[in-house]
Here is the input.
Amino acid sequence: MSGSYPRTENEAFDKTTANSQDRINRQIEALGRVVWVDGHAIGSYTNVARATFGEDTSAHHVTQAQSVLGIPGYKKAQAITISLTDRSLGKGTEHWAATQVQRREGGNVSNLGEAKKVGRRALKSAVKYGLSRKAAKVAIAKDKMYWSILGHSDKITADPVWKRRKSRK
Amino acid sequence: MTDYDELAAYGGPDIEQKISDFLKKLTKRKFAQIGVTDAAFIETINEFLSDSPNTFTDWDYRLGQPDLVPIDDNTLLVLTHLVEIDENDQQIPSPILVEIVVRRDSPLELYSVRF
Here is the structure.
């Protein structure tokens, strides 16, 4: 019977960590499956990009990837993404509107909570250009869940790459 | 299979170098080809690139942490960010994300450039 128990504390810790990571991976995978809301694909970047490849849409990360790249566990391929009209950033499109906000504010955030707020403001801006409120709400809810699964509080430091680059000048 | 193996399966063993070279040659014409006409966006990219008077001569850009999305048996979408290398050889990701289409036996294709 004793063979089924961890022999050392480290082994127990490794097993717990592995189980925990496995659970996190399964939850993130499930969360990343694409749902369609009012014509918008919402899910992980990988799944949204695949589902909308070749269309005039852009796979837009709800929380700007470049603001949160350094946060442990974050992977931009898994992060929550929504398809917004016009992958080429044509002026006046949903994606153009969202990136205007990110470009203006994304480099100034200092923690995850602020990065999420920029993401929400970006989608609100896209709503003015055609994105449905329902799709925006679903995307924001999924994004919130993604961060919850990773287990980070809003106070965890975000270190936007843009800010780092500016500070070097 | 590592990410690199998957990339090489679509684009050949020198694909990383090809993509790196491709990124170095991003031009206004290439942006225009994918419909990027937003003057403010182009200006921001140019501002970023202007650290080097001759595009990438002074700054060393390399392929950074690409995410690979297989579209079908012949097509792979690569999402990556431009990376600059500082004086201590440390990689610093730029705010610019690019998507590149890698197709077997075909030239690389710029899919999108964005923040």
